[in-house]
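Hello K.,

You asked for the raw outputs rather than the summary table, so here they are, unedited. I folded two proteins back to back in the same session to keep the settings identical. This is the first:
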Amino acid sequence: MVGERHGKPRADKSESSKSLPGNKSGKNIGNKARDAKEQKFVEKLLARVDELRQKNSPDYAARLIERVLPYFAFSTELYYALGCCEMDCGSFTAALRAFAAAGIFEPENPDVRLGIANAFLLLNWPERSLSIIKEILKTDHKHFGAHLLYGQYHEERGEWNRSLAEYRLIEDQHDHPSHPHLLARLGVCFLNIEKPLRALEYFEEALRLLPDDIETRFQRGVCFGALNEFDKALSDFEYVIEKDPLDGDALAYSALYQFYLGQKPQAVARIEKALELQPGNELISDIREEIFTSAPPDHQLPSSEDEDEDDGEEEE
C-alpha cells in the first residue's frame, strides 16, 4: 500500500517558518527607541503581516514590508518578519538574506539566529544550521525553538527516534505558542516509527489546540490511512484541498482513499488532476500506478497490541 510519506516537513508549506521560535513576526525583536508614532506604525504593520501569513498570503505580506523598509532601514523586526514571509513562500535564499540583515543589528538575538539556522537547514547546509542550534542550547538548554529545529534536523535525515527524543525535552512547555506544532511533530515521529495509534493521540491534541492547521490535518489524514480508517482519512484530505486546492500531495492521497473506498472513477479523475499540477511528483506517480494496477485493500483495523510500550527513543 502507498503511504510512505509519513510526514517529512514539506518545504513548500508555511510550516517551516512557523516553527522558527514560535514568535509572531518580529515580536520581542527590534528597536523600541524610535518615537511612539513610528513604533505604533510598525506594530500595526506587523499585525497585518501576521494576519496575511495566517491567510496564506505571505507573498503579499512580504511586499508590504519591502515598501516601507526604505523608511525603516534599521528595523530589525521588519527584516525578521520579511524573513518569515520569505520562508512561508519557500524562498529560502531570500529569507536567509533578510534574517542576516536582522542579525546585523541584533547578532545575539536567538530568534534571529534560529531564523538563519532554519534557512541554512532548508538550503541544505546542515552543518551551519547545527552549529547555530548548539550554540543557542549552550546558553539555554531548554530553548524551545532550538530543540524544535534540532528535531527537524534529525527528521531531514530520517532519524525519527532522535527527533522524538529531542521533541520530548520540551514537551512540558505547554504555554509556548508553538506547542501545537510540537505535538504535530511528535505525531509525525510516532507515525514514522509505525505507531499510528500513538501518533493519532498527538494529532488530535494538536488540532484541539489549533483546529484550522492544514498541515496537521494532512498528517492526521496520513495517520488515519495507516490505521485503515479510509473514510476519516479522506475527510481530512478534503479539508486540506478546500483550503489549498493546488496541494498535489493532498489531491493524490484523497484519490488513493477514494480508490480504497470503492470510488475508482472519482479517484482516477483526481489523481490525473494531481499529476497535471505536479507532473514530476514521485508520490503522485506511485499512487496513480496503484490506482490503475491494484485492488483496494481489506479494511482491517490495526490492534493496539501491535504497538509495544517502547517509544523508540533508542539510538538509530
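The second followed immediately with the same parameters:
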Amino acid sequence: MSATLLSGGAHRLWGPLTAVSTGWGSYNSFIERYTGATRDEHNALVPGMPTPQMQAELRYRLENLVLHYDAQDFAHELPKETIQRLSVRVEPSEERSIGDAVFQLQKTLRGHGESRAESKFAMGEVQALRELLAETKLHDVANLCRDLVAADEHVLVWCWHHSAVERISELLGKPPRVVCYTAHGGCPRSWVENAIAQWSSHGGVLAATTELLGTGVDVLARVCRMQVFLEMPWRVDRWVQARGRLVRMSQTRPVMTYVAVADVPFERSMFDRLMVEAKATDGLFGDNRGSLIAQALGLDAGVGLKLNELFGG
C-alpha cells in the first residue's frame, strides 16, 4: 500500500484489498467496521471518522499484508535534507486581512460545524485563508527561485492551489525573467509529462501542485535538489510525501527544502506544529490536517475531528 493510497481515507482501501486477499467482506460492511460509516438522508452509507480502535484493528490487519520497513533500516541510504523556514514579512494591510480571515474562521468553527453542510461552509473559509497567505508570499518565493536558478539549480515549487501555480509562473515571467513550467490537476496528462520533460532538460522552475505527487518521481530526484513550498501542506502525510519526491535513494546530492512562512501568528503556529507532528507520526495513518488547523486557531480537538472528516473524505 502506498502512502498516497493510505492517506486518501480508509474507505478507498476496500477495492485494492479485496483484489489481493480475502476476508474483507462487502464495501458497506468494510466502511462500517473501519470508518464508522453513517447513513445519509437517502439511507446510503457514508464513510465517517474512524475511532482509534478501528484504526488500530485496520493497521494490525494491514501489517500482515504489507512488507514493513523501519525508516532506520534505510535512512543511511537517503540524502541529507536541510529544512529552512523562509520567513516572509507581511504588510500591515495584508496582516489585517489575514487576521480578519482567521477571526471569521474561528467564529464560524465555534458556532457551526455540527452538520457536514455547515462544516463545508467553514472549509470555504479555510481555502480563502490559504489563498490570502499564498498571495503574501509570492514575491519572496519568486526572488528565491531567481537566485537558485542563477546558481544553475533546477527548482521545484510546491503549491496547493492551481491559482498559486499560475500566479508564481506569471511573476517569474516578468523581468528578470525565469522560465517556469506549470503542472497541476487541471492540466492534461500530456501537458504535465511535457512540462516535466522540458524542465528536466532545460532547467528553470517547475511549479506544481501536491496532487501530482505520483508524477515523474524518479525524474524529479535525478535533476533537482532544491524544493520550495510556496504553500506548506496542512496535512502531515502530504508533507512527508512531497518532500520524499526529492529525498529518496535515487537522489545523489544533499536536498534543500525551503518553506515559505508568512510572519503572522497563525502560519507560524501551523509551521511549528507541522514540524512537531511530522516527527511524531509516520505520515501514513490518521489524517490530522483538521486537527492542525484547530490547534493553530486555538480551538478544541472536537473542531479538528469535524474538519478531519471533511478533509479525509
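The chain is about 55% helix and 10% strand.

Happy to rerun anything if the numbers look odd on your end.

Regards,
P.
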